[in-house]
Amino acid sequence: MDVNAIIVSQYLAALEMLKESVIRCPDPLWDSPEDKAKFWHVAYHALFYTHLYLQPTGADFTPWVKHREHYNVMGGRLPYPPHTEVDTSEAYDKASILEYLAFCQEEVRARVPQTDLSAPSGFDWLPMNKLELQIYSMRHLQQHAGELMERLGSRAGIDVPWVGMKPA
Q1: What is the dihedral of CA 158, 143, 43, 138, to 10 degrees?
Q2: What's the helix, strand, coil split of the chain in %, to 5?
Q3: Ramachandran assignment for 118, one of left (phi > 0), alpha (psi -120 to 50 degrees), beta (any other)
Q4: Is 141 among the domain residues?
Q5: Residue 120 β-bridge partners
Q6: What CATH code is carried by the domain that includes residue 11?
Q7: What is the Cα 24 distance to its own chain's centre?
Q8: Which of 9, 98, 101, 106 has the fewest Cβ atoms within 10 angstroms?
Q9: Does residue 64 lie in a domain region?
């Protein structure tokens, strides 16, 4: 059993569901003023942390070339001191989010097969091994993909199909 290949497949399946949510999102929902957490922002947040947790350590992380400072933060405030407000008012467009998603798909394909799943997570705030980190990260990604799928379904009558697996 190749556990790394299984992890790649499940990451890619979750990313595919997020991708379909982004593609199917109608313009009025993308940056709706009635949403505290904008559709694009939830998608970006999910991708940022997927990208981050694929790295060997936090120190090895290089943000995506189009990253804007603190755009990974949800809730409007830094979750760590000095807890200042963050400005995420400039929306990413769909093309940019889809570009980042494709980048994350490539990161999954390149990094996961080489990951020692018994090694420490590489992130001091997550005291677990790499196997648990990958499961943790996929749960986070799928939670936000599900959140966006629910938003599409309840507010626009748009369904996003389930993807069970997606081999590399």
Answers
A1: -120
A2: 55, 0, 45
A3: alpha
A4: yes
A5: 129
A6: 1.20.120
A7: 17
A8: 106
A9: yes
Residue 154 has pLDDT above 90, yes or no: yes
CA 15 to chain centroid, in Å, comes to 8
Whole-structure pTM value = 0.95
Count the domains in the chain. Answer: 1
Structural domain containing residue 66: 3-156
* CB neighbour burial string for 30-64, b if at least 16 within 10 angstroms, e if fewer: bbeeeeebbbbbbbbbbbbbbbbbbebeeeeeeeb
Q: Is the CB of residue 130 less than 8 Å from the CB of residue 117? A: yes
149/69 Cα distance (integer angstroms): 27
In a domain, 163, yes or no: no
Q: Is residue 166 part of a domain?
A: no
Minimum mean pLDDT among 76-80, 89-93, 107-111, 123-127: which range?
76-80
